[in-house]
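User: Let's play a game. I give you a shape written as tokens, and you guess the letters that built it. Ready? Here's round one.
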């Protein structure tokens, strides 16, 4: 297996169900190949798997970071939910510093935590959902319960391992 590795945050069951439902409702089925997720790193080299296991296990020895769904992000032909979490931003920054030699240019850029719930739709469809969500959505806590390591393979993400935060 030689596909790139991906690191995401995972959600507690109640929030996971809500986010999965939103994604199923609004993401075109032919493009919806992975579950709703909050990506920390998009493309790490396959040879970094052992180091990632060590670093993610260490990062999750602490309590989970607090997070809030804080608004809607307009991504043009996509819609995402903005996540505010100083703790998760700090955790990701520490990991990025430790992994600096392994990061692609995209993973080195400023990170904006979000959960994409719609993508690859006409602009008018995305705008309609953004307008609706902006009027309905109120800030709400988001329970992050772990980190997950995935392998990208032919358009799909294969789960490799999940690391739970200590509560």
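Assistant: Ready! My guess for every position:
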């Amino acid at each position: 297996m030689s596909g790139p590795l991906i690191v995401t945050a995972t959600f507690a069951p109640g929030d996971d169900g809500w986010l999965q439902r939103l994604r199923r409702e609004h993401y075109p089925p032919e493009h919806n190949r992975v579950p709703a997720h909050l990506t920390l790193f998009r493309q790490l080299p396959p040879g970094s798997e052992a180091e990632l296991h060590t670093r993610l296990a260490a990062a999750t020895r602490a309590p989970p970071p607090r997070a809030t769904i804080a608004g809607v992000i307009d991504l043009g032909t996509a819609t995402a939910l903005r996540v505010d979490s100083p703790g998760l931003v700090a955790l990701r920054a520490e990991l990025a510093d430790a992994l600096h030699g392994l990061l692609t240019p995209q993973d080195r850029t400023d990170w904006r935590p979000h959960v994409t719930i719609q993508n690859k739709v006409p602009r008018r469809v995305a705008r309609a959902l953004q307008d609706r969500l902006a009027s309905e959505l109120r800030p709400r806590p988001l329970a992050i319960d772990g980190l997950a390591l995935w392998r990208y393979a032919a358009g799909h993400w294969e789960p490799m391992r999940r690391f739970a935060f200590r509560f």
